[in-house]
Amino acid sequence: MKKFLNDPVSFVDEMLEGIYKAHPAVTYTAGDLRCLVTAKINPGKVGIATGGGSGHLPTFLGFVGDGMLDGAAVGGVFQSPSAEQMYQVTKHIDQGAGVLYIYGNYTGDIINFDMAAELADLDGIAVRQVVGNDDVASSVAGEEHKRRGVAGIFFIYKTAGAAAAEGLSLDEVTRLADKARLRTRTMGVALSSCVVPEIGHATFSIGTDEMEIGMGIHGEPGISRKKLAPADAVVDEMMDRIFAETDYKQGDTVAVLMNGLGGTPLEELYILFRRVSLRLEELGVTVKHVWIGEFATSMEMAGASISILHLDEELDRLVAAPANTPFFKHIAE
Amino acid sequence: MKKFLNDPVSFVDEMLEGIYKAHPAVTYTAGDLRCLVTAKINPGKVGIATGGGSGHLPTFLGFVGDGMLDGAAVGGVFQSPSAEQMYQVTKHIDQGAGVLYIYGNYTGDIINFDMAAELADLDGIAVRQVVGNDDVASSVAGEEHKRRGVAGIFFIYKTAGAAAAEGLSLDEVTRLADKARLRTRTMGVALSSCVVPEIGHATFSIGTDEMEIGMGIHGEPGISRKKLAPADAVVDEMMDRIFAETDYKQGDTVAVLMNGLGGTPLEELYILFRRVSLRLEELGVTVKHVWIGEFATSMEMAGASISILHLDEELDRLVAAPANTPFFKHIAE
Amino acid sequence: MTLQTLNAANFIDLFRSWRMLFAEQREFLIALDGKVGDSDLGITMSKAFAAAAEALEAEGEAVGIAKLLRTAGATIARTAPSTMGTLTATGFLRASKVAEGKEALDATGVAAFWRAYRDGIAERGKAKVGDKTLLDVLDPIAVTLEAQAAAGASLSDALSAAAKAAEEALEATKSMMAQHGKAAAFQEKTIGLQDAGATVGAYLIRRMANVVEGI
Amino acid sequence: MTLQTLNAANFIDLFRSWRMLFAEQREFLIALDGKVGDSDLGITMSKAFAAAAEALEAEGEAVGIAKLLRTAGATIARTAPSTMGTLTATGFLRASKVAEGKEALDATGVAAFWRAYRDGIAERGKAKVGDKTLLDVLDPIAVTLEAQAAAGASLSDALSAAAKAAEEALEATKSMMAQHGKAAAFQEKTIGLQDAGATVGAYLIRRMANVVEGI
Ligand SMILES: Nc1ncnc2c1ncn2[C@@H]1O[C@H](COP(=O)(O)OP(=O)(O)O)[C@@H](O)[C@H]1O
Ligand SMILES: Nc1ncnc2c1ncn2[C@@H]1O[C@H](COP(=O)(O)OP(=O)(O)O)[C@@H](O)[C@H]1O
Ligand SMILES: [Mg+2]
Ligand SMILES: [Mg+2]
Ligand SMILES: [Mg+2]
Ligand SMILES: [Mg+2]
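ok -> structure tokens follow
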């Protein structure tokens, strides 16, 4: 294991100490470093909370800030935070308008968020949930409820965050977040494993000339493992799977998130995006918004994912809205 | 070599095609993809050009945009662009107020920028040069002119870009850029090698438990190779070298750039920054601005660098100013 | 000496014993969860029961069974927010409710304990019997205990019948395909392997039976 | 057949020969630059001279020596903007100026060629003799050629003396410590190694001598 750390056990808390020192725009509640909340509470606004394991920066906590989220419960590396932590975040960010939970479709997170929602309910806090399940590779069409949530959750955050910033109601913010969820698809590919600090060795092994299409961001098995193909062929395989279950038509607009898993250089993401963009052009689909970089990582894993949000008028408006968080800044045109 | 690419020879141009597709705020001049310029020329403003090898994204070209740079000549991976390309960028961005070149202290770049400046001079374009040499590890104190330019060039860009945006003259922008240069120090550490696409194998080899303190961003040898130490000890060694040749005093303010070299997860950068911040606190020095992430990379190299700019009043003002580039956005408070 | 009922002091002993159990089985559970999961089960279960046992000892028997079980649930929820950690916490919190006001649990009381434990986990996890989860052993545990209690069996006989049923049910998980959690991604590869969470369930009941029998 | 002077057609041949030379020495130069540099020298020099030779052939002898050298310089500057590429380009651009209006270069003309080549590179690179660079062979080349020309030597004798001097000077770079470019970072480690750029310089002059001698 070749990492900058002092002790695998204190990895997450020391990371958080660094985050609080660097970003005064976020702080923590309940005396627990892992209950991260925005320092700037907006009275009357719907609160948006997320949470999940560490090791995916900037997901999840990195998107707490103006125009995005209000709080994040932070778990150990690839481990769910506790229901209690989620509940503490919920209490802190509720401003009377209720709280929306947005998180990824993983059993551990679901049961904890469910438990937190029950606790919040006892306090009279209205809670809604939208559970990201954008990973096309993780289950067949028709079984979407079994799909994992990966990088595409960014679009749900962006949509819901902008809707809440506009002052919309909990039900309306939830409706829009859910719409973004339903219209987002992601395909990923991994070239190398990550190493969980407390485990200390690679989560999986993969040949020096192999790739795994569809691997999850914790190293969950993908669809196929084969010889690394040229970048364009890799993109084609991923785009074909996305196209197979979407109905993009000539004249439609999309937002694209070209995400690196941690170890892949930015240069390569642009080579991949070049092809993504060509494939969409061929269909007559316009890329209205695009973000390229690291958004949902898997520690030092080399690999990438393509997330596409099928826009409509209101999604376009919300995705275009400004955002200002420690890890993500968007300046509206 | 495990990279997303189609052909090592077309690596840079396909990356650029991706960049132009993603970011309409930048375009190219002279019919040459590698002559990248801002799409929004500001008449009367001092133009700022940079340039250097590819493989360091977001350095160099990523900082072309509002409040930062106006153009960048783009070389092959770790290769200088040509004097002709620099000259074409210069011609395009000159708005009558002259052009400042800001680039790193590497022989290949210097002789090409010198040649470009001569060509521009023949056209009557006033050119000044500020050559970044922030890498403490690359030569001893007293021999600063031999030092390489690394991530700290970001502070020179930020300072000069803000000064030019304020409408200051070429001499004044140059003075401020040079001041930022003189007050910036960087120390780096590498944990693994990068792979240059056209070479196809690791630039250097390093043991699975080793680190190299002071390694350059092209794999140039550093100061010492030893067993990977705990994160705090690694930071201490780097900070001690920076402190040894700066005169930070109680009450002083600094800007910090905690930079990842490409393969190191963001989580680890925050663990490192935690210690950086503690060491500065001990001296009574306040971190007024901090950026953490990937700013000057070396493809997929695992490693990090710490750059510190010793602020004064005018540098503080310029560093704090807003910026909006494809790869770097700063929203002033 | 075989116990006829489980009182607060016995529960403190039981958690101490569970703690030892998971310390011993730590590596085995890590390896088992590692086959079609993320290898954390041994770590989370040993952490969870170590923390719970300590919390119960600190609290002492005077607070009564219900309070001890509530403490166990809350402690586990905090220290091990993984799937199994949270489900286990939920189980104890629900069991705590049926123990409310009781000095000691006899066979009927223990049957109610495990029914509540099972129902809580079923509600929380939304899995069905046959989905290759913990629930596949909790269900026969609850059903067997209720039948035994209805038939007037002693606590020790009821528990050993339940433990036997659990072990058979665990064996039966081998032929199932995982539908939930990280294992679900491995699909066919999970066939032939016993479920990791169900293994924990079988351990819990066998150890409870042993403690009652004074083994 | 030994040449007495180098005319435009001879320069086209010479660049063709240089192109072959660097194609052959590609791997050797990659390895040499790799020891204390970035391994690109073999790639850049073979690219540079391939492009230059092609450009000269396309242009043809009719344009004259000066124009051919200018084309060589501009082509190399474009195709190989590395340190050696740009220095080499600068060398040919400066040499082009002294060849202005000349039909052919005799020993005196070739001495002027190499003096201009050396001066251009010295100005552009700001290195001094003894800094372990290309300049350490360019300087004896220029000096030897001037002395030979002043003494009335034939072009071929002058060039073979210069090539010999260059090779000795190259050998002498082994004992120097690099002050410039990527090698400078390696400090003491550069001692014992011949300089990569100086190696290119020695190659250029030896091949020019061979072409003149008709080898
Ligand atoms: N929805 C569910 N309901 C009940 N039990 C479940 C459910 N999902 C998973 N499990 C159980 O959890 C076990 C895995 O637990 P654990 O390792 O804690 O999961 P994770 O590491 O994914 O959080 C499985 O073997 C299974 O028995
Ligand atoms: N300032 C300089 N002046 C003259 N020659 C130089 C200078 N710096 C480096 N060189 C020569 O350049 C050679 C390396 O060339 P090259 O591989 O093209 O450099 P880089 O890869 O660093 O751009 C060195 O061996 C040396 O002879
Ligand atoms: Mg990275
Ligand atoms: Mg697990
Ligand atoms: Mg070189
Ligand atoms: Mg080079």
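Strands of chain C lie at 6-7, 104-105.
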